[in-house]
Amino acid sequence: MVRVELTQYSAAEGLEHFRLNLSGAVNATIGNTSSTITIVDDDTPGVNVFSYGISGDIYTVAAATDVIVENPNGGIDLVLASVSHLACRRGQHQDLGW
Q: What pTM does this model have?
């Protein structure tokens, strides 16, 4: 587990990214030596950030600006959208527009 302290403030920002690299394991094998972490800003007015459990989640999207953050290996979820919406899961974008 790696803890990253985030400071909450009201200035709106875009997505922020950083990379975590692992090396030098002792008595263990590192499956993935690096990963990119994305921090989603929740301070922008009109943007709702949804992030629930690890599987079987139900998201109700009411605005094109809503953001869904899914956990890795997050299982199968249901997205109810009344607007055209772009969903991103593990780097795969899915257009939910009708």
A: 0.52
